[in-house]
Recover the amino acids of this structure.
């Protein structure tokens, strides 16, 4: 009987850490995202925003992630280095497969997602000269209409387990999309973005 009690105690001692280290079937990420974008017309800039990403894993190492987020920018830099003051607000929604593994307290992951980006109407708040056409652009000009465009992204990152159901996350990614400008004399740009995110993950 004593040996049976000892074996039962050892089994419990081994099982508790193993259960604590198991990967969650559901998770919810929330955090901050910094984005640096570069367009095919050589315009560039950065945004600050938020990200929320619920994920479901029907298999231990393979799941589906739904990436939601919003970004804001105060303007962008033209190809000649001059600044355009224009509020830019955008929202994204993408979905796709995610692969993960566990290495001790660390959980590296990678995903590929597709969906779209919605951009609000873009209007400049100050006069400037367009670097492509050389034309003056008075304040209050509509530079781009509100629009929804197809987008896709690839991301990778690492979660670090603090508690059984709480992780911290660092993530980097690449986002591709295009958009339409109002000026017909300018070719519609293609935009590639580098994204860096950080936040917390709750596992269930």
């Amino acid at each position: 009987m004593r040996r049976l009690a000892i074996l039962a105690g050892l089994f419990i001692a081994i099982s508790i850490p193993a259960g604590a280290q198991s990967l969650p079937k559901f998770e919810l990420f929330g955090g901050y995202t910094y984005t640096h974008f570069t367009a095919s017309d050589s315009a560039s800039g950065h945004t600050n925003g938020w990200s929320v990403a619920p994920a479901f894993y029907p298999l231990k190492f393979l799941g589906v992630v739904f990436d939601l987020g919003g970004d804001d920018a105060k303007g962008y830099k033209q190809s000649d280095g001059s600044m355009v003051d224009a509020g830019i607000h955008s929202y994204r929604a993408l979905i796709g497969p995610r692969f993960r593994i566990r290495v001790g307290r660390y959980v590296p992951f990678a995903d590929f997602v597709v969906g779209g980006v919605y951009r609000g109407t873009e209007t400049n708040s100050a006069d400037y000269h367009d670097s492509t056409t050389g034309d003056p652009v008075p304040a209050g000009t509509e530079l781009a209409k509100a629009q929804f465009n197809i987008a896709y992204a690839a991301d990778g990152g690492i979660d670090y387990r603090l508690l059984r159901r709480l992780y911290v996350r660092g993530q980097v990614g690449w986002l591709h999309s295009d958009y339409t400008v109002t000026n017909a004399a300018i070719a519609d740009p293609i935009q590639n973005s580098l994204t860096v995110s950080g936040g917390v993950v709750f596992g269930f």
